[in-house]
Amino acid sequence: MRLIENSGLRNYSKKLLLIVLLLITGAAPATAQYLSRTVSGGDLARAVTDALSGTRIHLHNLGQQKGASYHAANAASVKWPLSFGPGRRSSFNIPELNRDIIGRRYAYYIDHVRSDSLSVSAETETLTLTIKLASSGPALVGRCLTLSKAPRPCAALGDAVLPAIDWLDARIDVVMKPIVFERSLAFSVENVSVGGRFDVGKSCSIPLIGGRLCVLVEQQSVRVRDQVAREIKAALDQDSLKRETATAVRRYLDEIASIPALGVRKVSMTAGSVAITLALGR
After folding, report:
1. pLDDT at residue 260 in the model
2. Does residue 244 sit in helix, strand or coil?
3. Which one-letter DSSP state was computed for residue 27?
4. At what angle do helices 239-255 and 41-52 cross, to 10 degrees?
């Protein structure tokens, strides 16, 4: 009989603790075991901006001459914030695109384009991470090599006639959707797009080779965008990165949104707000 009484008392104490937590957080229970909380998409965007603020993107594939190419493999990278682990970096390759014309190989390469700023904004059902890009000089530089047994820089109609190409309004937009990850809140990458335009006008006016070079630059533009978008998406979709993001968002939920000691069970975003269903335990 006493065992039954003690068991009933413990169950009552657990229910009382849950009621106290509901009162402290100001949340209403979704069921007898869960509670829900709605947070502003703008506030969550600021938390993600803080979490990713140390991210650095470097786009580059120009190296020293090797044979009939100046291509530097795996020279592009995403460097993650120190909070994700010291020196953590994801390297990737931007392929060379070239065109052989009258015994010469013409190619354009990306020359040290880096992230300039990072921000996150809240949309109706998603967050958008925008990374603006900049370079200290032209974004694309041209190189010419002769197609011979020992390729060498072109003496005529070579580098000197290849105009440098600027990348105007360069940016990367990442559309992210909030998801439950390891009982916290992280994001799945829905889409990555690389924006801006390459100023190719100058390359089109070169005598004899201008038309073909113009097509080359346009093709390089599309290829660079596609490759960068794929690599950024793959990097952001890693479970290890989601875990670090979830940890940073967890701190936001604990300290700013006043949702302590609770695990995220369900999340949805509508009308610019994020509804989170929580339960005791992480």
Report:
1. 57
2. helix
3. P
4. 120
Instruction: Give the pLDDT score at 25.
Output: 45
State which amino acid sits at residue 188: S
Phi-psi region of 182 (alpha: psi -120 to 50; beta: other; left: phi over 0): left
159 in Cβ contact with 142 (< 8 Å) = yes
Among 32, 12, 16, smallest CA distance to 279 is for 32
pLDDT digits (tens, 9 = 90+) for 162-191: 778 889 999 999 999 999 988 888 899 999
Token pair belonging to 52? 């990713």
Q: Determine the number of helices (DSSP H) and then strands (DSSP E) in the chain.
A: 4, 16
Please name the residue that has the structure tokens 């390759």.
Answer: 93
The angle subtended at Cα 259 by Cα 256 and Cα 260, nearest 5°, is: 105
Instruction: Note whether 248 and 47 are within 8 A (CB).
Output: yes
- Could you tell me if 76 and 60 are in contact, meaning their C-beta atoms sit under 8 angstroms apart? yes
Instruction: Encode pLDDT of 117-144 as tens digits.
Output: 999 999 999 999 999 999 999 998 889 8
Phi, psi of 193 (to 5 degrees): -130, 145
Distance CA 249, CA 265 (A): 14
Tell me: the pLDDT tens digits for 56-88?
999 999 999 999 999 999 999 999 888 777 778
Query: 110 with 152: CB under 8 angstroms?
Result: no
Helices (H), 124-262: 210-236, 239-255
CB 138 within 8 A of CB 162: no
Mean pLDDT of 251-277: 80
Residue 226 has pLDDT above 50, yes or no: yes
Contact 189, 172 (CB under 8 A): no
